[in-house]
Amino acid sequence: MKKLESDILKILEEDCRYSAAKIAVMLGKTEQEICAAIESMEERGVIVKYTAIVNGERLSDETVQALIEVRVTPQKTNGFDAIAEEIYRFDEVKSCYLMSGGFDLAVFIEGKSLREVARFVTERLSTIDDILSTATHFILKKYKIEGTVADREDAANMRLSVQP
Question: Which of 65, 95, 148, 156 gives 20 to 30 Å between its CA and that of 31?
Answer without folding.
Answer: 148
